Structure formats: structure tokens, C-alpha cells
Description:
Blueprint: H1 4-11, H2 14-31, E1 38-39, H3 43-50, H4 53-61, H5 66-73, H6 87-93, H7 95-107, E2 111-114, E3 119-122, H8 125-130, H9 136-149, H10 153-160
Antiparallel strand pairs: 1-3, 2-3
Helix pairs in contact: 2-3, 2-7, 2-9, 3-6, 3-7
Amino acid sequence: MPSLDAEILMIQNPALGAAILAGFVQGFYEADKSKQGGPLPYLYLVLPMVLHADIYRLLKSTKPSLRHLAEKFVSVEYAGTDLLLSLGRRASQMRKLTSESLAVMLLTRLARLDNGKARLTPRKTEQFSRRPDIPEQAEEAAKLGKWFADLSPFEIGSILKVAF
């Protein structure tokens, strides 16, 4: 039986993180009217949300928007869990994994980083979206990206109780 550390590494690894982040970048780009790409700081919220079991379950069951997702955090089932309030702390704790995942995503050319604007745009979108082995978390991250694209940084920060 694998140790807990080995199990965590199987789930929280830079390759999986890169696929999840690529899904987010793809979703953001599809919904972004300006087609400038997703702001780099947003990526540091993706893995803490998608790789957290309770948040992922809520994300998967929410269709309309980020606001609807945030409303679920205060439902009776999740009352007292501080899922929303702990997001900033989780983002800090997962900064290394996010940075490593971002590096893998850029090295594999799943996305392009505009260094001057600190924005990411997808590459290889056709190949990425058609692959049968895309993790389902990447699809949920794409949905999250679409929601982020419809909101300002202030709105995202207010809804998720984080600061950029």
C-alpha cells in the first residue's frame, strides 16, 4: 500500500496541475471578449480550488457562475467549514505546485505567456481538447476560467475573499 505522501504526489503533481491550468487558460480565453488571455495571478487560485475535494464537488455541481459557487459555500451542508475563507491560505500553501505546474504547461507549449502583460493564452487547443486522456479536472477548470473571464479582478476577489 503506497504511503500518504506517495498518494498525494500521484494527485498533486506538476503534470496534472499543468493540464488543469491549461484547461483554465482555454476556458478563460474562450469567454474573454478581448482575447488578451488570462491574468497570471488567477492561476494561483485554480489548483487550490480544483484539487480540494469539497470545493471540486461544489464546482462540478454548479453551472451558472462563480457567484452561485460562492453561495454554495455558505449552504447548511458546508456551514462552518470556512472553505471560502481558507482559499487564500491554500493558494499560498500550493504556490510551489502552481509554479511548477505553470512551468510544465509553458514547457509543453500548452499555453503562451506574454511577459509584458503577464497574461496567458492557449496553444495547441485543438490537440488538447480532443485528447481522450484529458483529466476531468481540466474540464472543470475550463468552466472556472469562463466564469473568471466574465468578472473583474475586484469582483473575483470579493466573491472568493482573496486579494490580488
